[in-house]
Amino acid sequence: MTKHYLSKSKIMAGRQCEKRLWLEVYRSDLIEYGSDVEQRFAAGDNVNDIARAQYPDGVLVSYDHGANAAVEHTRRLLTEQPDTPIFEATFKAHDVLVRVDVLKPCREGFELIEVKSSTSVKDHHYADSAVQTWVLKCAGIPVKTIYLCHIDNQFVYPGNGDYRGLFHYEDITEEVRELIREVPQWVQRYREMLNSGEPEIEMGSQCEDPYSCPFIDYCRGEETEYPLRHLPRISPQLQNALTAEGIEDIRDIPEGRLSSATQERVRRITITGEPELTPETAEIGAYGYPRYYLDFETIQFAVPIWEGTRPYQALPFQWSCHIELASGELQHEEYLDTSGNAPMRTCAEALIETIGKEGPIFAYGSYEKTVLNALIARYPDLAEELHKLTDRLVDLLPIVRRTYYHPDMHGSWSIKKVLPTMAPHLDYGSLGDVQDGSAAGTTYLQIINPETDTVECRRLVRELLAYCEHDTLAMVELVKYLSK
Ligand code: SF4
C-alpha cells in the first residue's frame, strides 16, 4: 500500500467529497477553476496581507524552496526567535503537511490563528483548524488557544490604509479540541481510499459546499441528461431515496412521487420534452412605452478599497440599458466607470440622467432593486430621483418562473438558462472571456489596475461593455417572446 502524503487542503478536499480528493491526486489535469474561484483566491491573498500587517514583527516562512525547507525554516525560527510571530509556519507529522496562517507565541505555548475571508465561522473551519492543531500537537508544539480570524462585515473603511477593526477574532479552541481525535481516522480513511480506484460518487449538494468543486465539468460528463439534482430545491433525503430506488434521471420518476408542485412541473415537462408557456404571459404586453431594460454590474471587496464602504458590499461600477420605443426602435445606453475611484455616485448620476421620466424599467431578479436601494441609502441627495426609478421597476423573474418552462432549462430559471431556449442566437457562449458576473468583476479589477497596459485595457473594456449589453438585450428578447 502506498503511503500518500497529505496536506490540510487535501484532507479538506476529502471532507468535501472523497472523489474530489482522488481526482486531485490522480487527475489534476481535469481541474477547472471558475472565475469566482480566482476572485476568492485573490481576496484570500489580500486578506492575509492585511492580517499580517497587524503583527509588524512577524516573519514569513517562504515556500519557494519546497516543504522541507519551509519546515526547517520554521524550526529555526522557533529556536532562534522564540518570541516572534510566524506567518505560514510549516509543520509535518505522520506525512501530513500544514501551514499555519499566524503562529503567535504566548505564555507557555502558542496561539494558532487561522485567517479567513468569510464574515463568520463556518462548520468546515473547525475541521480545518483541527487538522492544523493535530499536526502541531504531533510535532510537539503546545497550542494553547485557537482563533478564527474573519472579516467583520460591519467595518467601515475610514481610508488611508487604516484597517484596524477589519477583523474579528473568535476563540474556537473548545470546538476544535473535540474534533482533533477524529483527524487520525480521516487521514487513515483517505489513504486507504487513495489506494483504491476512483470512488463512485453521484453529484449532489457537496459539489458546491463548502466550495465549488473544480471537477464539476468532469463529473457532469458522467451524468444522465436530466439528473435528479436538477429538480428545484430537491432535498438530500429525497435525492438519496430516489437513488436507492435505482432512479437517476428525472424522466424515470413515477407520477405522484413528488409532493412539490414546481418539481412535479419540471418532471412533467421534462418527460413531454415540450416547453410550456401559459397564456398569463400575455399580460406583459400591457406595459407601455418607452420600456427600459436595466442591468447593473457590481464589485465586492473582502478588504474595502474605497472610503466609506464595507466588506462585501455590492458596489455598482457599470450598467447597461436598452430602451424600446413604441415604434419598435431599440436604443442602447451604457455606463462604465474605469477611473479606479469609487464609481457608485457617477453610476447613479448617469443613470438618473439617462432614464426618462416614465415607462416600466424591466430587470431580471431583485438585484437591481437592491443596488438602487443601497445607492438611495448612500446618497440622500439623489434619493428622490432614485426612488422614482425603483417605483417603476418590473421584475421579470417571477413572471417567467410562473409562466414558462423548457426542458433545456434543467430546473433553473436563471436568465442564462432561459435565454437559449427563447433566443438561441443570443447564447452567452458567443461572448468573449466575460460570460458571467464573476468574470465581469475580475475584468473590472484588471481595468482599474494601473499595471494593465492601455491596449489590453481597451480590449477588456470592450468585453465588459459587450457582456452587460448582452444581459439587457436578453431581456428585450425575453419580453418579446413572452408577449407573443
Ligand atoms: S463534482 Fe461533485 S461528485 Fe464530482 S468530485 Fe466534485 S464534489 Fe465530488
List the topology elements:
Elements: E1 6-7, H1 8-16, H2 18-26, H3 35-53, E2 59-60, H4 67-80, E3 86-93, E4 96-106, E5 109-115, H5 123-138, E6 143-151, E7 167-171, H6 173-180, H7 183-194, H8 216-221, H9 236-244, H10 261-272, E8 276-277, E9 291-299, E10 315-324, E11 330-336, H11 344-354, E12 361-363, H12 367-378, H13 383-391, E13 393-395, H14 396-403, E14 404-405, H15 415-422, H16 437-448, H17 454-483
Bound molecules: iron/sulfur cluster.
Major sheet characteristics: 7 strands, mixed
Question: Overall mean pLDDT score?
Answer: 93
CATH superfamily of the largest domain: Ribonuclease H-like superfamily/Ribonuclease H
CATH architecture assignment name of the largest domain? 2-Layer Sandwich
Summarize the structure.
By secondary structure, the chain is an alpha/beta fold.
Structural overview:
The chain is an alpha/beta fold and 484 residues long. It has three domains: 6-194, Lambda Exonuclease, Chain A (Alpha-Beta Complex), CATH 3.90.320; 231-274, no CATH class; 287-484, 2-Layer Sandwich (Nucleotidyltransferase, domain 5). 42% of the residues lie in helices and 17% in strands. The chain is built from 17 helices and 14 strands. The protein has helices spanning 8-16, 18-26, 35-53, 67-80, 123-138, 173-180, 183-194, 216-221, 236-244, 261-272, 344-354, 367-378, 383-391, 396-403, 415-422, 437-448, 454-483; strands at 6-7, 59-60, 86-93, 96-106, 109-115, 143-151, 167-171, 276-277, 291-299, 315-324, 330-336, 361-363, 393-395, 404-405. Strands 1, 2, 3, 4, 5, 6 and 7 form a seven-stranded mixed beta sheet that branches. It has a five-stranded mixed beta sheet with strand order 11-10-9-12-13, sandwiched between helices. It has a two-stranded antiparallel sheet with strand order 8-14. Strand 5, helix 5 and strand 6 form a beta-alpha-beta unit. Helix 15 packs across helix 17 (454-483). The chain starts with 5 loop residues before the first strand and ends with a helix. The model has no long low-confidence stretch (mean pLDDT 93). The structure holds iron/sulfur cluster. Residues 16-17, 19-20, 23, 201, 203, 206-207, 213, 215-216, 219 line the site of iron/sulfur cluster.
